[in-house]
Design brief:
The complex is a heterodimer of chains A (99) and B (393). In chain A, 20% of the residues are buried. Chain A has 2 helices and 4 strands. Chain A has a two-stranded antiparallel ribbon with strand order 1-4. Chain A has a two-stranded antiparallel sheet with strand order 2-3. Chain A folds into 2 domains: 30 residues, no CATH class; 69 residues, Alpha-Beta Plaits. Chain A has 99 residues and is mainly beta. In chain A, a hairpin with a 2-residue loop joins strand 2 and strand 3. With 393 residues, chain B is an alpha/beta fold. Chain B has 2 domains: 245 residues, Thiamin diphosphate (ThDP)-binding fold, Pyr/PP domains (Rossmann fold), CATH 3.40.50; 135 residues, Rossmann fold, CATH 3.40.50.920. Helix content of chain B is 41%, strand content 19%. Chain B is built from 12 helices and 15 strands. In chain B, the strands form 3 sheets. Chain B has a 7-stranded mixed sheet with strand order 3-2-4-5-7-6-12, with helices on both faces. A 6-stranded mixed sheet of chain B has the order 9-11-10-13-14-15, with helices on both faces. In chain B, helix 12 links the parallel strand 14 and strand 15. Classes of the chains: A mainly beta (99), B alpha/beta (393).
């Protein structure tokens, strides 16, 4: 059973054993960035694409395409601020998120 | 041909592990189970098994290692005792709820504190609600046999639960007794290959194991777990039947000793059952109709079968080698008394906490318990229901 097939209406007999899902990467479907209070902001003009922030993100919330980092994935970023701390070029700002 | 040998309970379990040749062992030493990974690492070093032996840094990691290995599609085993089992606590629940049939050899030892390295059942009894199947052994033979049967039970598609095989620390684990071992090929064929339907390393079928379970799903998965535990009862009996064919040794949920016409009975777990049987024999010589039930399967608890077995007795002593500090009795007492609630004519049931922290369990103490039962059987009611046996008053 794939993630999209798992519904809240299914009974215990219909659901997969132990909640197993027949695919990987299902966190893409669940937005877990909602409880963020602080938010990092990407400033592309200052970024040298050194890539230091990417592996430091505990949540894979800095997408990379063609060797370059893109803007944050705010659906999953928890606002921990590690990327802001490690950036040597001031290309990431960190502020209180106004919702 | 069966092999006649003599060995300790620990060696017997390690021997069974060698015959089964699991894919992974994640283990950390702790008295009195240390010898199991010690023997087993020799088998690994000698090339007698193909097992990946992972020397981890703690029991939490040992169980985590087993969870990863089993989820990946391997067969994982470990051994531990006391504080080691306590350190695994969090991961015991993860193993069970992820429905990973890991096999754990628990060599029962008291939990601290006060710190003590000797036998009682406080470690595994504390883990009784973790979702593991629990099998208890009286001696090295049963420790070996239970371990040989464990994987067939846990891995069954209707069950998919981890299995804890318990034996009494030092008393069983370190005492050398005669044993009848099965030949390697017979054990291998009996246990068979581990063939889970889905697993992480099955590349044609990607899988997520242990995902976050929201409010909308958690209870459904817990219901599945509860059903699996109920299903385990039939599987335990089925596996025991098959095991009898290769070993000529009979197993069930519990052993009934001279229970047919018993008027007073003792319900007990583990090595002390041997001592209690000697007491039953001597009482029988005096013309007293005494009997004994030795629990082999504590999880799932064979409630209806126990009620049936006790229905005709006048009084029974439920023996707990662990206290649950409920203020009204140990864990086995709570289960047995609850099981008997539906009986039309209920036996008088009393609880004895005994043998804690390795306190010797002697025939004279057990006889005292039986004498009290005879008195209560006559009166039809006990003075009290919660006693400590063999404690200085």
């Amino acid at each position: 059973m794939k993630a999209a097939e798992i519904k809240e209406t299914l009974t215990w007999k219909e659901l997969t054993v132990a909640g197993e899902i027949a695919e990987g990467g299902t966190s893409v479907l669940t937005k877990t960035g909602e409880w963020r209070t602080m938010i990092p902001r990407f400033i592309p003009d200052k970024c040298k694409q050194c890539m230091l922030c990417v592996p430091c993100c505990p949540d894979m919330s800095i997408p990379v395409k063609d060797g370059k980092r893109l803007d944050f994935d705010y659906d999953h970023c928890k606002g921990c601020g590690i990327c802001y701390k490690v950036c040597p070029f001031g290309a990431i700002e960190f502020e209180k998120e106004e919702k | 041909m069966a092999i006649r040998e003599r060995m300790s309970g620990n060696e017997a379990v390690a021997y069974a592990m060698r015959q089964i040749d699991p894919d992974v062992m994640g283990a950390f030493p702790i008295t009195p189970s240390t010898e199991i990974p010690q023997y087993f690492s020799q088998y690994v070093a000698n090339g007698q098994v193909h097992t990946e032996f992972v020397a981890v840094e703690s029991e939490h990691s040992a169980m985590s290692c087993c969870i990863g290995a089993q989820a990946a599609g391997g067969r994982a085993v470990t051994a531990t005792s006391s504080a080691g089992l306590a350190l695994m606590w969090e991961m015991l629940y993860v193993a069970a709820s992820s429905r990973l049939p890991i096999t754990l050899s628990c060599v029962n030892r008291a939990l601290s504190g006060p710190i003590n390295i000797n036998n009682d059942h406080s470690d595994s009894m504390g883990a009784r609600d973790s979702g593991w199947i629990q099998l208890y052994a009286e001696n090295n033979q049963e420790a070996y046999d239970n371990f040989c049967m464990a994987m067939r039970i846990g891995e069954h598609k209707d069950v998919r639960l981890p299995v804890m095989c318990c034996q009494d620390g030092f008393i069983t684990s370190h005492a050398i007794e005669n044993i009848e071992l099965l030949e390697d090929e017979i054990v291998k064929n009996f246990v068979g290959k581990y063939e889970p339907e889905n697993y992480l390393l099955k590349k044609e079928n990607p899988l997520s194991v242990g995902p976050y379970d929201t409010v909308a799903y958690y209870m459904e998965h817990k219901k599945q777990q509860a059903e699996a535990m109920k299903n385990a009862k039939a599987v335990i009996l089925e596996v025991a039947k098959d095991f009898e064919k290769i070993s000529a040794r009979k197993y069930s949920f519990f052993e009934e000793y001279k229970m047919d016409d018993a008027e007073v009975a003792m319900v007990i777990i583990g090595s002390s059952a041997g001592t209690a049987k000697a007491v039953v024999d001597s009482l029988r010589e005096e013309g007293i109709k005494a009997g004994l039930i030795k629990i082999r399967v504590f999880r799932p608890f064979p409630a209806s079968e126990i009620a049936k077995a006790l229905a005709h007795v006048k009084a029974a002593a439920i023996m707990d080698k662990a206290d649950s500090f409920s203020g009204c009795g140990g864990p086995l007492f709570a289960e047995v008394r609850s099981a008997c609630y539906g009986l039309d004519s209920k036996p008088v049931l009393v609880n004895y906490i005994y043998g804690l922290g390795g306190r010797d369990v002697v025939t004279t103490d057990l006889k005292k318990a039986f004498n009290k039962l005879l008195e209560y059987a006559k009166k039809g009611a006990p003075e009290e229901t919660y006693y400590h046996l063999g404690v200085r008053e």
